[in-house]
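Below is how a single chain appears once it has passed through the pipeline. First comes the sequence as given, then the structure the pipeline wrote out for it. We keep one example in the README because the format questions we get most often are answered faster by looking than by reading.
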Amino acid sequence: MSDTTFAALGCNEALLAALAKRGFETPMPVQAQTFKPGLEGRDLLVQSRTGSGKTLAFGLPLLHRLSDERHPQALILAPTRELAQQVGAELHSLVPKLPIASLVGGVAYPPQIRALQMGSPVVVGTPGRIMDHLNRGTLDLSRVSMIVLDECDEMLNMGFLEDVETILAKVPAGPQTYLFSATLPAPIAKLAKRFLKDPVQITLAEAGEHAVHADIAHTPVIVPDHQQVRALVNLLLLDQPSAALIFTKTKAQTEEVAEELTVSGLPAAFLHGDLAQATRTRILGQFKDGKLRYLVATDVAARGLDISGLPLVVHVGIPTQLENYIHRSGRTGRAGAKGSSLALVSWKESRILLAWSRRGGLQLDWRAVPTPAEIREAQAAKLLDGIQGSASAALLHQATQLLKDADPVRLVAGLLGLVQADQASGFDLPNEPERKAKPRFDNPRERKEGGPRPQRSYAERSAARGDSPRPDSAFSKTRPDGSFKPRSEFDEKPRPYVKPKPGAPAGPRKTWEDRPGPKKPSAKFADDRPPRPWKKK
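Resulting structure:
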């Protein structure tokens, strides 16, 4: 957090009151560094990780620079519907009466067209729906003076960069442009060079090519692909987090994981791009309000969810890029809070995660899948903590009467059976030693001790297995002891088979007596059998 305050930055009274109402008095570093140049009308090129307060970083100077005219003045582009709606909600929380046109897919056109016809000063949307309105002629960008490109690297990954360039080309020359991105690959740098004028470049300390969050604990688990969902059930039953956002690789996986969790007594819902926008909004609302404990989603929600106090993010298999893994994990540990990122990885993926830990500075704390016995023990300990509170006098009297007429051990066992009847104890997964393993460090620089693994000869490996020595071969490159022969000891290689040319006369047919090997007379190879001419197949 910064040492300054929003009042010292120069926020007006109305926005100060709105910020104070939400408990914001001290700006985040990205907000403190962008406010002054943004207020002066400078272009901004900002690198900052997800969850660092970027919405207010561009929202505060943007709100200060809006005029009272009723036409689109500011255009905000976001990669996903959820992120666009989140940005609109954030601006509405600061200025409730501000007309904002939210142009996102999955929603009917008439409400969006009415908002544009009313002359909303702020337009927030996704590139695809913005392009649709431009093609329909319902959106006029001729008087836009401010443009915000939020999560620009994600728009590049989703293939929106060409649409973004088309949209920017329709805006009159000279608008103030804010470009926010966690990374700056070559296409984003080229876009910034083309559309930004002498920008103020801000790179926060935690940003960079692979920015990581210091408040997030990374705890991977090695488990085979076909057992990952059951392992997830065991881990959630043991840890009992208040909420968890679970990421999968495919849309079908979200439905499978959500169904397995629900059947195991952990009610969950799934979220992916094929759902109607109304359904997605309802599910997200339930998750944010705490009515839904577990949400299984694809990366479509990775950039659009801002859940305060989310304690856990789960990866059922890691994504293809370190950057996407970091953005997924960034849904927890926001605004200085602590969080945890749990990754269920196969053996191959564990090696990838190890490489990422070196490149991105991740501190990995490997753990094993809990067994049903460990889960029952944890449930019993939690139950004991819950029943040791104060009890009413009536309950104490009733307990005294019960203890007089029954065996205390049997009584407690019966009560535990009633209480735990509906509690799941997880799955008894096979390959217990395998699940507790950690990835090997095959590279000598990776190994903590012992150096590289020794290389054994063929003879040593054979002796370790108890095999008999391999017989020498005329064409073998190694001796029976495993040592390599010099080139001079190689016998001449047999001549390869050469297919006869078409039309060439067939050679004399060899009889059985001319063939090598044991001589066994057979009618099939009789000496008086005439040779068959060669035929091209």
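The chain has a mean pLDDT of 79.

See the next section for the split statistics.
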